[in-house]
Amino acid sequence: MEFRYLGNSGLKISEITYGNWLTHGSQVENDTAAQCVRAALDSGITTFDTADAYANTAAETVLGDALAGERRASLEIFTKVYWPTGPKGPNDSGLSRKHILESIDGSLARLKTDYVDLYQAHRYDHETPLEETMQAFADVVRSGKALYIGVSEWDADQLRAGQKLASELGFRIISNQPQYSMLWRVIEDKVVPASEELGISQIVWSPVAQGVLTGKYKPGAELPAGSRATDEKGGANTIKSFLNDEVLTGVQKLQPVADGLGLSMAQLALAWVLQNRNVASAIIGASRPEQVSDNVKAAGVKLDASVLSAIDDAIGSLAERDPAKTVSPQSRPS
C-alpha cells in the first residue's frame, strides 16, 4: 500500500480507502461485511469511509463492529453529515448547528470511537448560513470529536467560501469527496484547480463508475445477474446513467490497455484516478473480500503518457465534463 498526505495537512491516508456506501447494512450481510473489512486491513488499507445516512445509520454500526479491537491510532476513520437520518424530522438533515452537533455524537457511538479522523459535510446546505455550519465544525474540532474537516461534492465557489471562514475560525478544510472516474470528470475544470489553490485533496468515490469500468456490462447484452445494475435497493438507480451501448462499447476498448499492463479493468480504473496529483485516495466498496484484495493492487501503479492517451482515445469523448454537474440540493432533503 502507498500513502498520501490529505490536503495541506500532516495526515497520511492509504491510496485506497475502504467505503461502505451501498454495501454494509444493505446489500451485504454483516458477516460478509466483516470479512471485507478484514481483507482491507490485511491488504494494508488503513482508511475507512462511511456516513450516518448509509443504510440509515446501520452502515456506521457495521463498520464500528468490524473494526472493534483494532489499534485506533493505526486507522483513519471518516464519516459524514447532511442527508436525512433517524425518523427524518425537520432537523434530521442539513448542516445546522443542531444537526451537526447531535449527529457527531451519534456517529461516534455507532463507530465505537471517541473521535473520527475526518468529519465531512456530505453536501452543501443552501438553507443554513455557511457561518453557522463552519462554526459548528470548528466546535467539533475543538471538542476533540473530529481531528479534521472535509466536504463532499462542493463546487469551487463553495470551497473558497468555506475555506475562508474555516481559516478565520482556526481550522482548515483539507478534503473534498467528489465522484470521479474516466467517465465522470466534472471536477477537472474548476474544483481541482480551486482545491490545489486552497490546500484541499480529493477523496474520490465511484472510481470504477459503479462497476461499469470493470467491463462486466456488455453492449446489447443482458445485465449480469446479481450485479449492482439489478439491485432494487438503490444500486440500479446509481448506475443507470452509464448503461448505454455507446459508453459500454467505449469501455470494452480499455480491455487491451489493461491486458497490456497486466491489470484488471478495475485496477486500471483505480490507477487512472490516482494519476491525478490532487487525488489523495480512491474509495472502493466490496461485496466479497476477494474484490478488496484485487482492487488494492492498483495502489502505486504509474501510468505513462501513452497509456493515458490510449484511455482518452477510448473514453474521452464519452466522459461527462460539465462542471455544473457538481451540485447540492437547493433545499434540505427529507
TrEMBL record:
Gene3D superfamilies: NADP-dependent oxidoreductase domain (3.20.20.100). Residues 15-314 form the NADP-dependent oxidoreductase domain. Keywords: NADP, Oxidoreductase. One of its GO terms (molecular function) is oxidoreductase activity. SUPFAM superfamilies: NAD(P)-linked oxidoreductase. Belongs to the shaker potassium channel beta subunit family. This is Aldo/keto reductase.
